[in-house]
C-alpha cells in the first residue's frame, strides 16, 4: 500500500527541472520531502485521511528559489537606515536629510543606504561642507548603492576618531583642489569607514535586521540564501549572529565568511570561505580593475586591493584545507588575478570536484572562460545588473559602447561549459530571483540572452550544485527537500518583457508554507 502524503499539491503546472525536464500536474510531500510528482489521478492515490490538499487552479510551481549571493544581514539592516535609492537631485536629498535631523537628537547617527550619484542631476555626491551645513551635530554616513564608496560628514569623522593624520595615510580619501577632505571615501578608506560604522550596530538591531531580511526573502520566493558576511566591508558580528541563530530561521542559510583568515573559518567549522573578498571595486565607482582605461575617465584602470602574492597565498592555504573558495572580481584584470591563483593551487595540490567560484565576473573574456572551464570554476553572477545598468546605461558610460556589449556574457559562459549561477548581491539590488531571470532573458546584448528555463536554473539547480547541494535542492524530485515556490503566472508562457512582473503566490520550505501572498 503506497505511503500517504502529508500534503498533496494538485491542479498545478510543476516545472520539475529534473533531467527530463518533465512538467507535471502536482507534487506530494511527506516529512518535509518530496514523495513523487505526477498527474492528478496518480497523486490521488497518496491522499489519506490526514492529507492536506492544496489545489492551485493552474498556477505554476518551481523549485524553491536560491539566491547565490546575498549580504543577508546588511540587507536587513538597510531596513533600519534611510533608503535614498530614488532621489534625483542633491537639493531634494539634502532637504530630506535636514528634515530627518530636525527630529533626531544631537549625536544620533544618520545612516543612509543605497544613494546613487549617477541618478542625481548634479552627477556627484554631496560634499562634506554640504552635509555639515544640514547636520553640524549629527554624524552622517551615506553608503553608495554599490558599497564601494561612502560619504561622511565632520561629526562622523570626529566620532569615528579619524584624525587628519590618519586620513592622510588612508588610500581613497578624496580631496578637493585645495587639499581639503571632501567626505567621499573610496578604496581602502571606504572599507575602514564602513567597518567602523557597521561594528557600531547593536546585537538587538542585528537580530531585527535578520528578521527583516528573512521576510524579504520569503516574499520573493527564496528558500535558500548564500549569505556573504563579515570581512572588510561588513562586520564579523554578523557571521556570529547567523551561526547562532540560523536553526531558528525558516530559510536555509549557507554562510560564506568574507575573510582571508583561514584559521578563523576552520575554527568556526565552516567548509567555505570568501564572498566579497574584494579583489577590485565596481564600475559605478570606477574601481573595478580593467585591462584598459575607463572610457569616461582615461586616467584610471580601476583598483586592485590585493597583490598577486597575497591572493596566491590565501587561495593556496584555503585550497589545501579542502575549502570551497570564492572572491569578488568584476573587471578583467581582477579576474586574471584570481584565475592565476586558482590554477596555481590546483596544479600544485590537485583536488577532485573542486567548485571554487568567482563572484560577479562582469567583464570576463573568452580566454578566461576557457581557463575557468578547465578547472571547474563556477561563475556567480547577478543578472539584475544588466537590467539596471546594461547596454547604454551605466556600463555604456563607464566602458564605452563596444565594451558594454561584452559585459555579463551569460550565453558564452553556458556554451563554454562553466556552471553559471544567479544571485542578487542584495543589498546592491533587491532579493528578487524573478527580476534576475528577467535580466538574463532580456540581456542588453541579444547574443548573450538565456532561455527562461536556463535562467530559472541559475536560481535553482545550478545554485544548488554550486555548494554541493544538488542531491537535496534545486529540482522537484522524489527524496529532495520540499522547497517550492508557487508563481501566479506561467513563466514559460508569458512574454519575456513581463517576467519581472510575475508575482510569488507562496513560498514553501520543508513542506510548510512560510509565505502566502493573500496574507501579506
UniProtKB/TrEMBL annotation:
Pfam families: Amidohydro_3. The keyword ATP-binding does not apply. Keywords: Hydrolase. GO terms for molecular function: hydrolase activity, acting on carbon-nitrogen (but not peptide) bonds. Gene3D superfamilies: 3.10.310.70, Metal-dependent hydrolases (3.20.20.140), Urease, subunit C, domain 1 (2.30.40.10). InterPro entries: Amidohydro_3, Metal-dep_hydrolase_composite, Metal_Hydrolase, YtcJ-like. It comes from the Bacteria. Residues 53-515 form the Amidohydrolase domain. Transmembrane segments: none annotated. The keyword Hydrolase applies. PANTHER family: EXOENZYMES REGULATORY PROTEIN AEPA (PTHR22642:SF22), IMIDAZOLONEPROPIONASE (PTHR22642). This is Amidohydrolase 3. It comes from Natranaerobius thermophilus (strain ATCC BAA-1301 / DSM 18059 / JW/NM-WN-LF). The lineage of its organism: Bacteria, Bacillati, Bacillota, Clostridia, Natranaerobiales.
